[in-house]
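Task 17 of the worksheet. Students: predict the tertiary structure of the chain below and write it out as structure tokens. Keep your answer in the requested format; marks are given for formatting as well as content.
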Amino acid sequence: MKLRLMTVIFCLGVFSNSFEQTFETNTTAEQDQALPDKIQLIEISTPNNKLTASNYTEKQSVKSVDDEKNQTVQTNQYVRPSKKERFNAYVKNTIGIPAFTRGVVGAGFSTITNSPEEWERNGSGFGKRFASNMGSNAIKQTVIFGLDETLKLDSKYYKSKKKDIGSRFKNAFLSTFTARNTEGKRVIGIPRIAGTYTSTIISRETWYPDRYNYKDGLKSGTISLGVSTLFNFIKEFF
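Model answer:
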């Protein structure tokens, strides 16, 4: 009985060991068979010039730089002010605080230098000079606004997009004699030039003392453009 039992146990052990070896062999064969399929799948999913990690990082970096450049171009792109904004700017430049300040400063300087002499160096003379400055400025701004609207130009001052000193000096100087078209490109600033000389000539030919004429207006207009350039430098750097 014991011999039979030992024989049965021995047979079961041999059978179990054989089964385990067979199972491991089949499993290994299945894994080996599946592996080429995975490798083949990877090879199919990647092109001939395989996208490595470094190539991917490089392409992402280039894409980021391109996106940044495009965003910068869109940010720096000129946008013409709306009709309402242009009109509000005209009103501000004509009777707003900046215009009032320029009128006071100019009248004070002219009173100190007593120019013109006929208006004397006193309170009454200061009032005449202040009124003259405001009237002349109203003519200038009206001509500029009218020509800007007619020619579809923009005579507003824009600070330089570049930060080097040379570019900023150039921008401040050119802005006195140029304007921007609807695309933002610089063109000859006819509105500002015409408005400046028109205002100085009319003032000299009308309410100034009789000894003044259009020649004095031309001279004063040239000086006024120079003063505008000086103010542009102040706007650009301060």
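Marker's comment: Residues 2-45 form the longest helix (44 residues). Strands lie at 178-180, 186-188.
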